[in-house]
Fold each of these.
Amino acid sequence: MTKERLYLYDTTLRDGQQTQGVQFSTPEKAQIAAVLDGLGIDYVEGGWPGANPTDSEFFETKPKMAATFTAFGMTKRAGMSAENDDVLAAVMNADTPAVCLVGKTHDFHVDTALGITLEENTANISKTMEYLVLKGRETLFDAEHFFDGYKSNPDYALETVLAAYAAGARWIVLCDTNGGALPRDVYETTKAVIAAGIPGTHLGIHTHNDTEHAVANSLAAVDAGARQIQGTLNGLGERCGNANLTTLIPTLLLKEPYASKYEIGVSLEALQGLTRASRLLDDILNRVPMKQAAYVGASAFAHKAGLHASAILKDPSTYEHVDPSVIGNERIIPMSNQAGQSNLRKRLSDAGLRVEKGDPALGRILNRIKDREAEGYSYDTAQASFEVLARQELGMAESFFDVERYRVISERRRNARGHLVVESEAVVTVQLPSGRKMTSYFKNEDATEMNDEGPVNALWQALRQDLGPYQDIINDVRLVDFKVRITNGGTEAVTRVIIDFEDETGRRWATVGVSANIVDASFEALLEALNWKLLRDGAVRAA
Ligand SMILES: CC(=O)SCCNC(=O)CCNC(=O)[C@H](O)C(C)(C)COP(=O)(O)OP(=O)(O)OC[C@H]1O[C@@H](n2cnc3c(N)ncnc32)[C@H](O)[C@@H]1OP(=O)(O)O
Ligand SMILES: CC(=O)C(=O)O
């Protein structure tokens, strides 16, 4: 069966930038455009030239891409010709091969927002589209509020899109601007537009996620015959966002009937870069990636419940709708109070610890994890703490050194020059096989420099300063991330600290500490990280 072509149009750099709190720089726009192009997106909308300096500058850089680079703007304003409209001129001067212009199709908006007659609005749309075609641009008309407009006045809504199509627009894109439409409305209205004379091969869909149906609405439009989908990476966009291309792309490639019926520009090979593309955008936005995101989230293939993990180990398809590697994601079998022995054995074998089914140590480890989680610990992500605990129960954890005591002091004051200073000082006494050792660390930081070192850093520096015979092994350990949560351990509120570490081989590991005192919780996690490193790197307890 020959597949029909479906076109993907990305508006991350325009509607995505309409997300509250999102403002891309020009280099960031270039980076995102390159990622989209690498995936195989057909159209990359770069922004609205002339609307703000960043968008104008981005278009001036004339980014090279295989995708059709597209400028966004609005139809000409009433009372002037397309040639004389300076807002439209800025869009045209960007000199892109394609131009997408938004125009009104809802009678209420023509009256309320524009304050012109319906006839004037239709004429403005026609004249603007004709102008774009005359200038040799691939012309797209974003039919704003189309689904609401069709409900309010179907004849007028159809008149506007038919006028744009008759004037030569290549694509008429039906927009659910306020995001309130449901799949059935979208399906039936799209069918009505096709019946009125615009072929599906010239119809696109642009949806918003205000009822969490943006993806479903896009698919409904495709089911009805539309052949272009507009959306954004990670579903960024005005208010609740746009249709999420990060979800739509794998659905179109992997799910029926779409996979058999349609061809898209994204190949199965490029699909393997989707998780990376999604995380890169979050990285640029300095956002924590959404764990529950479909297909690309860190938890999208995390099998926490014991029954699930048991079956997953026999055949992953028992609890996975697709193979995570197809979209560049990973399967995780976390340890937690929902776990059974199957999760445990998988997690142990990932740590290189082979334990036979039925070994009584498995029950002991599981019970300890469940007890500790009840106290506030969490082993979902703190895989190194899990491993240390398991090794202890298996009799495979040597004790290298003991910490007899530590003391940490922080002081905030003004120095002689009147500058605010924060000083942290730590002393740690450890019992090494060779005897007792006391190390200290003192840091005077100028708070005006916004330095982030404090008591935890002082403790860390004191602890790792001189561990005698083990020093060579722990020298390259770096602290890379620090997360704090207040949680309920038993009946008391306690602090849970999770710390990520890295060594010079690039290996990363995380540990957890819990205490009523944040510094003490941190200390526990620091200590565990060093123990894990010593265990993993084959330290031998010195005589
Ligand atoms: C549905 C969407 O998301 S479309 C994308 C929306 N994106 C943006 O608005 C971001 C970029 N926009 C901007 O930077 C500015 O709005 C500009 C530069 C385009 C215009 O700025 P200003 O001239 O100051 O106008 P302002 O933003 O206050 O209002 C928009 C004007 O455009 C008019 N307008 C709105 N839509 C259209 C249209 N499709 N065709 C013609 N005129 C329109 C409005 O009636 C209003 O005119 P008025 O001031 O005479 O009432
Ligand atoms: C054009 C557009 O972004 C909208 O109607 O939602």
Amino acid sequence: MSVCNGFNNHQNGSTDTDDHNGCSYETLLQTAQYIQSRIPHEPKVGIICGSGMGAYWHEGSLAEALGNKVIIPYHDIPNFPVSTVEGHAGQLVFGTLSNIFVVCMQGRFHYYEGYPLWKCAMPIRVMKLIGVEFLIATNAAGGINTAFMEGDVMLIKDHINMMGFAGNNPLQGPNDNRWGPRFPPMNRAYDAGLIHEAKQIWKQEHLEGRLFDGVYTCLGGPNFETVAELRMLKLLGVDAVGMSTVHEVLTARHCDMTVLAFSLITNVCVMDYQDHDTMPSHEEVMDVGKVRQGTLKLFVEKIVAYIAENRLNKK
Ligand SMILES: O=P(O)(O)O[C@@H]1C[C@H](O)[C@@H](CO)O1
Ligand SMILES: Nc1nc2[nH]cnc2c(=O)[nH]1
């Protein structure tokens, strides 16, 4: 049996033998079957709760708000990676939100944790196998667009796959057509209809703070950027920079999920050599996430309600 190198294999006693993209369809079917044996319904919407949105178990977080919760820690799930980021709970939380059954990833996997990109994105394929059709990916990001302030929210209308420019992509390796095509298009990675609706919801619900749209990029991390790097990203048309999401979106689109994603701007990037005082930190990221999670929770609830009423069974 094929297993995933570096994964939590303790339950099947397998040895790690596979290298790049060695996590086969059959292996992930076993992972999916384990999860299915523990949940009462198929989730149609998957939500990735990043550092800006209750990746940790804060009171008032989105994951905590689900009804009739079933919680499965990552370390219990065969073949799943484990979370190593400070504050990330590292669990799947299933339950009802806006009257439908959803799954939240509370904490995600990053390249800087030492996982290859395909492994960081592997939970997306597991979500697909258990029924997820819509992915809502959230993250914390630094604001490069000079209009952005801490606490702003940016709907991701597009991304620049910087790591892909360097030849690093979660879809590298043998392609299994059961997931999707060898050469997937990415010109409509982020669903324009959902972006439009999300903007309407923000207005109609009078959600607190400012909503923008813009271009996101993911760098490998774990360090925050130098001034020169940030200036370069700005020149390239990047509005917000983070350390996640792009590999998840590539994997989700490859297997034909519909994607909406947004960034919580947790810090304004320091683009000025004269600024000797401002230093980005993970503590600041988590603090801003905590302050904004009430608003973001409402935002996601309403987006899920929209999907449930207007988009499910109409794909
Ligand atoms: O998981 P996300 O992308 O939301 O978290 C960002 C990137 C790093 O993991 C962390 C830095 O503070 O925030
Ligand atoms: N790369 C990067 N990731 C972040 N996550 C939250 N803020 C930042 C940032 O400024 N840069």
